[in-house]
Write a structure and sequence with these properties.
Blueprint: H1 2-46, H2 50-57, H3 75-85, H4 88-97, H5 99-103, H6 106-118, H7 122-130, H8 139-152, H9 156-164, H10 174-185, H11 189-202, H12 207-219, H13 223-236, H14 241-253, H15 257-265, H16 274-286, H17 305-313, H18 322-325, H19 331-337, H20 339-351, H21 355-363, H22 374-389, H23 417-427, H24 440-446, H25 451-458, H26 462-467, H27 480-494, H28 496-503, H29 510-522, H30 526-533, H31 542-557, H32 561-569, H33 572-575, H34 578-590, H35 594-603, H36 609-621, H37 625-638, H38 643-657
Length: 660
């Protein structure tokens, strides 16, 4: 018995020894693997692959320590990777846990310092800045942040003096010059432009400078040139979602909703694309649909992800779902911070006939400073006030004038006659008293079920308007533009066939007749389209000119060159118009009359991009390199995203350089 006990004890000791050895060997194996991972992560950082380095570091993040551990110290690796990625949120969170590790890395310290300033945490910023006093390698960056601190303290002149106290070489000087430009932009846009131009010379690949230049051009009402700058910024940094967001916002501000949505949707595949998803989902529900929605799935991470998921799952024909939204994480913050929620709730209240709730939403709208559609909002407020109290005068009326030099379009909030007329009626109505002298057609519309969708139509928010019940035939007592706007809305959202079926049921007006003829041409019914357009082509106005142009183009498509020429020449306003001369030049080319085409295009070279393109190709064919180069450079300015033109320009420069 004793012998058995001894044997059991020996076996237990041996087992324990073997078990300990096994644990030791496992620990050694883990330590070896961790060292391999650590060196691989360092190599990836050296190769500028911070995301891959963070992926390897992820299993070890729970072992991060302010004091150097017995094994591998992952903290410097993580800080380096986050700084390279410019992940300010993660770095700020890490700074709260390990302030020394972050503040000892200058790149990370600068990012956190900027975040602290944005949070107005001045004392913490000063402490972090002082850590680099006398030893900073990035003096220019700290100088700019110190200027930002002065601006935060309302010491504008001191900030300006600090920024002007030193200059730096190359790209290092960019932020300083940009800050000076931003300061100058409130006083002298010309000075701001010159500063940005100087910055661009020092750092030609910097997309931020280009977007600021775009904003200045937009501010002085040069949208065509501003668009070129926004596109140029994207060419410099095509995978930057912020730049794509800005270009889309530019289109949105100018009421080109289709271009805005198309722009945003092209960036949905990028990392950090949550704002692009939110814009795309909201504006396609409110204005025009996307021709082809990308196959990418909505993001499941990020601050905006819950709101994006909410919008993505909203059924068609529904603006809001209060019960579902109650379960959206961070929902209250979205209501305060995301203007999309305001417009969706407002449209939902109007659709459900909850006019008191809609009035409350409008009265307490917190997005006045950044309102996307101020005239649409004020017009909806007027409609609600008139339907409830008979008054049209409200406290705030959005300006109804179109900015000088801006061409009105069907999508233009600022130029639509409904907004202009409602604003004028309000100004001539006594405050707080029932409005008088309202035209019968306006009164008929405002008291009908179609008043609210009419306002959305006027703003170019076509999908929103068509979500409301629509009339099969617009009442004859309504303003003429209502039937026209419904037809255009159907055309842009559902196609020409749907729009045509609606248009032929409406009261005939010159503008709707023109549109109906155009729709017949769009569906391939040339004979019917030409016959309808001839009803208004004799008019000596824009409608007559456009009708004659459409007829001539349809005749050109049918190869009836003689009839197309006669249509233009017998309508003098069209014959003298750039569009008419372009069509005559195309006819000449179809007939093989190159000499006449050359003459026609040459006569409109300065006004017509089509003429520039034709003449550039002709100059290239005849080896007139200087002329071809000049014209191509002008075209590239207009179409900076056209690869073919860029290649042509490069070829021309090479030919001139080699004097071929």
């Amino acid at each position: 018995m004793r012998k058995l006990i001894v044997i059991a004890a020996v076996l237990a000791i041996v087992g324990a020894f073997l078990g300990g050895t096994s644990l030791y060997l496992a620990h050694q194996e883990q330590f070896k693997q961790e060292n391999l991972d650590y060196h691989q992560a360092k190599d990836l950082l050296a190769q500028s692959k911070p995301q891959a380095a963070l992926l390897i570091a992820r299993p070890y993040l729970d072992r991060l320590s302010a004091t150097k551990p017995d094994g591998v110290d992952w903290l410097p690796i993580v800080v380096d990777a986050l700084a390279t990625e410019k992940d300010v949120i993660a770095l700020t969170a890490l700074y709260e846990r390990f302030p020394r590790a972050v503040s000892d890395n200058e790149e990370a310290a600068l990012l956190v310092a900027a975040a602290l300033l944005s949070q107005k945490n001045i004392s913490e910023y000063i402490a972090l800045r002082n850590n680099w006093s006398g030893k900073a390698n990035k003096e220019a960056a700290w100088l700019v942040l110190n200027a930002d601190l002065l601006l935060l303290q309302d010491r504008r002149n001191e900030a300006k003096a600090l920024l002007q106290s030193k200059t730096f070489s190359g790209p290092e000087d960019t932020d300083r010059l940009v800050r000076l430009a931003l300061l100058a932009s409130t006083e002298n846009l010309s000075t701001a432009w010159n500063l940005l131009s100087e910055a661009l010379v020092k750092d030609p690949k910097n997309s931020v400078i280009t977007t600021y230049r775009a904003q200045i051009l937009e501010a002085i009402n040069k949208p065509a040139l501003a668009r070129v700058e926004y596109l140029s910024a994207i060419h410099k940094d095509p995978n930057n979602p912020l730049l794509i967001l800005q270009l889309g916002e530019f289109y949105r501000r100018h009421h080109h909703y289709d271009l805005a949505i198309e722009t945003w949707s092209q960036g949905l595949h990028l990392a950090n694309s949550n704002p692009l998803w939110l814009k795309t989902l909201f504006w396609t529900r409110m204005t025009v649909p996307l021709k082809e929605f990308p196959k990418e799935q909505p993001p499941t991470t990020g601050t905006l992800a819950p709101l994006i998921a909410f919008l993505d799952t909203l059924p068609p024909g529904q603006f809001w779902d209060e019960a579902t939204f109650r379960h959206v994480p961070n929902g209250e913050a979205f209501l305060r911070q995301c203007q999309e929620t305001f417009w969706l709730r407002l449209a939902s209240s109007l659709l459900r006939g909850q006019e008191a709730k809609a009035t409350e939403l409008l009265d307490f709208n917190t997005f006045h400073a950044t309102n996307w559609a101020p005239q649409l909002q004020s017009t909806l407020q007027q409609i609600l006030a008139y339907r409830r109290y008979g008054i049209l005068h409200i406290d705030k009326i959005a300006p109804s004038n179109t900015p000088e030099g801006t061409a009105p379009t069907i999508n233009s909030d600022a130029s639509h006659q409904f907004f202009t007329q409602m604003a004028d009626l309000a100004r001539h109505s006594p405050p707080g008293l029932p409005a008088e002298n309202i035209p019968d057609e306006i009164r008929s519309l405002l008291t009908s079920d179609y008043a609210f969708p009419a306002a959305f139509l006027a703003g170019g928010w076509f999908e929103a308007a068509l979500t409301f019940p629509m009339p099969e035939r617009v009442p004859d007592t309504f303003p003429d533009w209502v039937a026209f706007a419904y037809t255009q809305a159907l055309r842009h959202t559902q196609g020409p066939e749907s729009a045509l079926r609606f248009a032929v049921k409406q009261k005939s007006t010159p503008s709707l007749t023109l549109l109906t003829g155009e729709l017949f041409l769009a569906v391939g019914s040339d004979r019917e389209g030409i016959a309808i357009l001839k009803k208004v082509s004799h008019q000596q106005n824009v409608i007559g000119l456009k009708a004659a142009l459409l007829i001539s183009q349809a005749q050109l498509e049918r190869k009836d060159y003689g009839a197309a020429t006669d249509t233009i020449l017998t309508h003098p306003p069209l014959a003298d118009n750039v569009l008419g001369k372009e069509t005559l030049a195309r006819i000449a080319l179809k007939q093989g009359d190159i000499q006449r085409a050359d003459a026609l295009y040459s006569s409109i070279e300065n006004e017509s991009l089509e003429a520039k393109l034709y003449l550039a190709r002709r100059a290239y064919t005849h080896k007139q390199w200087d002329r071809a180069l000049k014209l191509t450079e002008q075209l590239v300015v207009e179409f900076p995203d056209n690869i073919d033109l860029q290649q042509d320009l490069q070829k021309l420069r090479e030919k001139i350089q080699h004097k071929e």
